[in-house]
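Please predict the structure of the following assembly.
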Amino acid sequence: MYRYDEFDHAVVAARVDEFSSQVARRLSGELTEEQFRPLRLMNGVYLQLHAYMLRVAIPYGQLSSRQLRMLAHIARTYDKGYGHFTTRQNIQYNWPQLCDIPAALADLASVEMHAIQTSGNCIRNTTSDPFAGVAADEVTDPRPWAEIIRQWSTIHPEFTYLPRKFKIAISAGEEDRAAVAFHDIGIRIVRNDAGEIGFKVLVGGGMGRTPRVGRVITEFLNPTELLGYLESILRVYNLHGRRDNKYKARIKILVDALGIDEFRRQVEVEWAHLRGSEVEVPASEIERIHSYFVPRELPARPEAPAEFLAARQQNAAFARWVDANIINHRVPGYAGVTITLKPAGGIPGDVTADEMDAIADLADRFGFSELRATKDQNLVLPSVAQEDLLPLWQELVSLSLAEGNHGLINDMITCPGLDYCALANARSIPLAQEISTRFADLERQANIGPLTLNISGCINACGHHHVANIGILGVDKHGDEAYQLVIGGDARDSAAVAQISGPGYSQEKIVDAVETTVNTYLAQRTGAEETFIETFRRIGLAPFKEALNAAR
Amino acid sequence: MSKTFVTANRLTDGLVVFRTADGAWSTAYADAALYDDSAAEVAAASSEATVVVGVYAVEVEQAEDGSWQPLTTRERIRVLGPSIAYQRSA
């Protein structure tokens, strides 16, 4: 795991001092709200419906147990005892007082954390695969590259006032687990025919009111050229991105307007100036950053131990959890574990301070004190011995966090919605609670199989409804909440934007519509091995539309 | 017949506050003053830049029980707080 050097410490400490002074000047009236707003946003402080909100960065989702305990401390000391994990692998607090935020940021700095660039028109937290460094299917560990991007993009003077926010994701698994196709820049680490590692770069992906699948700008980029190339993309965007219209200011609109070929040409003109310049990362620096991510020497543990296999045979709930929440580890005898923060009837992504502390203890006991936050609003213990899976699961049962629902219908992504968000049109969380209660039976969830269901309270799509197999979008209907149902989205390499199923639904009818959609899939699938998205791709939207209309 | 109340977020903690009849602010909706025309009150309240942020007026209608309720879901949630039990195990 990366550890701050003196520069990182100095940058974060200086920012805490600077923001403390800005808060003091705002409270005294020296700064107007208009002057203060962009400053607080650059430090992750929003003003929401009922209170301020503080968003804390978790770079590429990586957390130590010590840091998670600090997040619990922040929740307890400065908030109402809980936090909310977000789709950008961050955590946000819904109730901090403005006057307390400088102290909270100082506490965070003590464990190498901050809220810099978690908001505002700048390069946001770079996200990655939650199983980076441990997944059996990965080309190489993407975290050193995510860290290099983090260092380059943190307080980059040229990119602090972009036309709009800018999000980068990087992943290296055979299967993309970071939704890279839906980022302003998405990077897939690949191996070429010569066996060399390089970057396939996508640009102009995104969700919001104009969902776009990222377009390939280069199939293969040499690792040393990464920052020069990213800087060239950012320069073209910074120069030509629209600043006159907030809704047309993202890079995807520029790529649409120019076409990917012309956009690429302009980037390459810029790149010709930067190639070979000091922007490129020296090999020694690449090596230095990689040294923080050298794979941990894991003690040898038995593969498929008898006790584990027996428990899996005898305990249906444990077996379900193993089936859904465990992935293969690069080291035999180990597994990667997802702790889904999605108990039936619960609030997706919410964790209390006590739960954070308990999960940090489990990370110490079973997972080398290492954790990850995921874009699906879950937590991951990346390295757990198979022998320890049963005792870990038993501890999770006592925390009510042991449901084997990862990747199933109840593992929903849900934005805060109108319960908190000043931008939302409709509530998301109560809907998620109603759906997860309706589908609470784990056997039913397992029978339905892999299915993503995401909910956004408005067209900004923080709840990723566009890329869900079944997506729900909250809309405003004459001051009341209404919901649109979309079907067929996919956040993986086989990326697709979901299609509108028909007219919207009232709050009372939307959960029935979800059930009708699920039942239509079950009736149409060729067998249990055909997933929802596969069935959708085979039969198209029409049978779903028909069933939904018949049930109206 | 509709009336309006005047609301904002308090600068120090961001909490929702309501303009009271004596020109102060309260976190209790029951203390909110109702106006036939709140334009002057919004203007006056907006000058209190070290006390509140984002002053605006909200239209309300009288419900059957006699209480005055905002017309939109958004404003009703803002008055009542989140509609969910957000402190799960607290």
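Helices of chain B lie at 39-46, 73-80. Chain B has a mean pLDDT of 94.
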